[in-house]
Write a structure and sequence with these properties.
By secondary structure, the chain is of the alpha/beta class. It is built from eleven helices and twelve strands. The protein has one domain (about 5-299): NAD(P)-binding Rossmann-like Domain (Rossmann fold, 3-Layer(aba) Sandwich), CATH 3.40.50. The chain has helices at about 10-25, 80-100, 140-150, 150-155, 175-180, 205-215, 235-245, 255-260, 265-270, 280, 290-299; strands at about 5, 25-30, 40-45, 50-55, 65, 110-115, 125-130, 160-165, 165-170, 200, 220-225, 275.
Length: about 300
């Protein structure tokens, strides 16, 4: 039985991935900050803040999926919050390396999450690919350092895959629920300027991509985990209105208002560029939900 250790296993991505892998016969292990008893999956305690991780969590030949990271959309980006966001993506990787390679345990593969924010916060007609450099803004630097935390594994001869993930669409617990929340009251609220692109991926596809990265030894390096159908924010909300049979007449929420409320974090909502999925498709992966219409219906 293949054994996989997952950090962030109880989050949106981790919980869906754990269910998929367990169904495929994998022995799923979670690293958790909380208690380890009465858990659905075998669990071991870790506390990256103090540098603790139960050494019994790892075995030779494990696969590791590193999903744990502080949510960039929670709280204004103060200087302290920015340090926390970056630290949660770097210190954790260092701890995993020390508890595996540093302890003489060699994983078969190390898969780390990252984000399409690697390419920066802007509105551009350019289609970004994995060969493009990271942006120099906060989100680009965060993703660069997040991915760099996996470099020691690669240097030790471990196959490393970096999945640069778009906004995840799911029936519950995803950013989609917050974006479309006003629709429950019969309103479709659009965010200015409207032409910002909205890179996205359905949770079922993302889980399957992680599964493929675990099992396809030819996969290595960065991949954009993003659906091939490129849509703008207005196109997204237009499809929401169509499927829910709601009027779509309200003006955009202005950028200045979002900046006043959210501060610098507002760029998550007001910017966005097109991201290529060609390298992922070249591995032979076929999307279950390649277009926004089918993905929204599933959600």
């Amino acid at each position: 039985m293949n054994r996989v250790v997952i950090t962030g296993g109880t989050g949106l991505i981790g919980s869906h991935l754990s269910t998929l892998l367990a169904g495929e016969g994998w022995h799923v292990v979670h690293l958790t900050r909380g208690g380890t008893k009465r858990k659905k999956y075998e669990s071991f305690h870790w506390d990256p803040d103090s540098g603790y991780c139960d050494s019994d969590a790892f075995m030779e030949g494990d696969a590791i999926v590193h999903l744990a990271a502080s949510n960039i959309g929670r709280g204004r980006w103060t200087k302290a919050r920015k340090r926390e966001i970056i630290r949660s993506r770097t210190v954790t990787g260092e701890l995993l390396f020390n508890k595996t390679i540093g302890a003489g345990i060699t994983p078969t593969v190390f898969i780390t999450a990252s984000g399409v924010n690697y390419y920066g916060s802007e509105i551009s007609e350019r289609i970004f690919t994995e060969s493009d450099p990271p942006s120099e803004d906060f989100l680009g630097e965060t993703c660069r350092r997040w991915e760099a935390a996996a470099d020691p594994f690669r240097e030790a001869g471990v196959r490393v895959v970096r999945l640069r993930t778009a906004v995840v669409l799911a029936r519950s617990g995803s950013a989609l629920n917050r974006i479309t929340a006003p629709a429950r009251a019969g309103l479709v609220v659009k965010i200015a300027p409207g032409n910002q692109y909205f890179p996205w991926i359905h949770i079922d596809d993302l889980s399957s991509i992680y599964h493929k990265a675990l099992t396809d030894n030819a996969m290595s390096g960065p991949y954009n985990a993003v659906a091939p159908h490129q849509v703008t924010h207005d196109m997204l909300m237009g499809e929401v209105a169509r499927q829910k049979r709601l009027p779509n007449f309200l003006p955009h929420v202005p950028v200045w208002f979002l900046r006043a409320v959210l501060g610098e974090m507002s760029v998550i909502l007001t910017t966005g560029s097109r991201i290529s999925s060609d390298r992922l498709s070249a591995t032979g992966y076929r999307f279950r939900y390649p277009d926004i219409s089918s993905a929204l219906r599933a959600c």
